[in-house]
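User
Please review the sequence:
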Amino acid sequence: MDDTPQRRVELSPVADPAPLGLAAFALTTFLLSAKNAGWTDGGNAWLGFAFAYGGLAQLLAGMWEFRNRNVFGATAFSTYGAFWIGLGLYVLLAEGGSPNPLNDLGFILLAFAIFNTYMLLWSTRTTVATFLVFLTLEATEVILFLGFFSSSGGVANDVVKIGGYVGVVTAVVAWYASAAGVVNGMAGRQVLKVGAPIWREHPIVAPRADVAPGLPVSAPRERTR
């Protein structure tokens, strides 16, 4: 028998990285969507933030979600952090030499819309606020890739502008979810409502006759010697 004393090691708690990831996503989405909507008179104001905030900060949030064993958050934040970095690199390095950059952007948005579709489905197991972020983002991506594919002559059409408007709504929803995560985490209670999961697990109903119908079956206990 090993008499070596056992020491219990407890890992220090980690702050929830989701509010950071949502804020980074919201701000960068807002800047790009404002341009797509035709509200801005300048250039690519979103580009630097695509690398620093929407890209790097959101990617880091995704890595910290791995530490929290949150597979959904880790996948979502890491993917969209990489999305912003990749989109920024495309604009800087490849867009100028492309014969049809709008077609390129259409395929990029189509690919991420496919990813976002199943993440939208699985977001029903999180909160209503998170679900609404993915729902509005799905609408934004679909409208944008349809607009980019239907644009011609190197000029985006009005469908892209509509996608910009919906993108602004997406940013506002993501900002709300981020704000709720910050204040709720600080207060230790729900100050801003985020909503319960839409898709909830149902208890396993006991098939045995010696258990009252409809009651969940508890896991069998191991015998102790």
